[in-house]
Design a protein that fits this description.
By secondary structure, the chain is an alpha/beta fold. The protein has a single domain, classed as Rossmann fold, CATH 3.40.50.150. It is 34% helix and 23% strand. The strands form 3 sheets. Strands 3, 4, 5, 6, 9, 10, 11 and 12 form an 8-stranded mixed beta sheet that branches. Strands 1-2 form a two-stranded antiparallel ribbon. α2 runs parallel beside α3. The longest helix has 17 residues. It is globular and about 50 Å long. The termini are far apart. The relative contact order is 0.13.
Length: 318
């Protein structure tokens, strides 16, 4: 399907775009995650990644040379990296060839400039780029946490919010219990693709304690910190919350959800710039309001709006 994206609205820009077109024409492949462009507060790129990218650029004081997205989907995250970070060499991957092909066309067709160098491929995490230039200043990932049901194939429908659970790699028990398997594997691979002063930025639904994210980075052999902290309404709640509830009943978790009203109050006076340093303080203030996945699913079925916190985890070489 095709969507049109008003970039100034989508990325909350004050000025005209520099590197990408003002209006993006995006083809979304059948199996790619469908961006929530009509509901920006539910959209991972616009609401979570874009503010983090702006802060990265502000803290650096200059453009980054290179950017890569793991699991790009439609390619909107790549276009966002080009516009907000000024990246001139970009890489992107996704599991299926048709998704990567569509993303490549979307990126090429929506640029204002013609000096961007591309590296992309289909396959597992960063492995499609293993024969390329390898080093990136910013590695971005927003990977799924919920495994597919045993009788479902990744190609059956828009299953990009789920992942194939069977892996040959050894996953630490702690990581699996927190449903962070793909994030761990991405961080492990990223050590070989980071530039010396580069960092991985993982967008993580805060359905587990923040301390679990810090430990995730440590187990992957990186130094990790909370870069930004925010919240969003749970997208596709029937599918996602029920998926977490099923995993909870299987012995994982417990996981954390919140009523949207409680989240809005907790983050009311928190700026993006200060959110990382205040993350643990905010998490503690929400302790009495947290819901298990099972309780959150019951509340959702009764018509309540359910959300979750979101951390952008910055991980760098030790």
């Amino acid at each position: 399907m095709s969507i049109i994206v008003d970039v100034n609205k989508y990325l909350a820009l004050n000025d005209a775009t520099k590197h990408i077109k003002d209006y993006l024409s995006i083809e979304v492949a059948d199996h790619a995650y469908l961006p929530k462009t009509e509901d920006i507060k539910s959209d991972w790129v616009a609401y979570i990644a874009a503010p983090a990218f702006k802060l990265i650029r502000e803290k650096l004081g200059h453009d980054v040379d290179s950017f890569v997205s793991i699991g790009t989907g439609s390619g909107i995250d790549v276009l966002t990296g080009i516009e907000l970070l000024g990246a001139k060499r970009v890489g992107f991957t996704d599991l299926q060839r048709s998704v990567v092909a569509a993303a490549a066309q979307n990126v090429r067709n929506n640029l204002k400039i013609n000096n961007i160098e591309f590296e992309f491929g289909d396959g597992d995490l960063l492995q499609p780029l293993q024969n390329g230039k390898r080093n990136y200043d910013v590695i971005y990932e927003n990977l799924p946490n919920v495994p597919l049901a045993n009788n479902t194939k990744i190609e059956d429908k828009r299953n990009s919010g789920h992942y194939l659970e069977k892996r040959i790699e050894l996953i630490p028990e702690f990581v699996h219990e927190q449903m962070l398997d793909l994030h761990y594997l991405a961080l492990k691979q990223a050590r070989d693709y980071l530039s010396q002063n580069g960092a991985v930025y993982s967008t993580l639904g805060g359905r587990v304690p923040l301390s679990a994210f810090i430990k995730l980075g440590e187990l992957a052999g990186l130094h990790s910190e909370i870069f930004t902290y925010s919240w969003k309404v749970q997208a596709e709640p029937e599918d996602v919350i029920s998926g977490y509830a099923a995993q909870e009943k299987a012995g994982l978790g417990p996981f954390r959800f919140y009523r949207a009203d409680d989240l809005q109050k907790a983050f009311a006076n928190v700026s993006v710039k200060d959110s990382g340093s205040r993350a643990f303080e905010i998490e503690e203030s929400l302790d009495s309001a947290k819901l298990s996945a099972t309780a959150a699913y019951e509340a959702f079925k009764k018509g309540e709006v359910i959300g979750h916190t979101v951390a952008v985890l910055k991980s760098s070489l030790k």
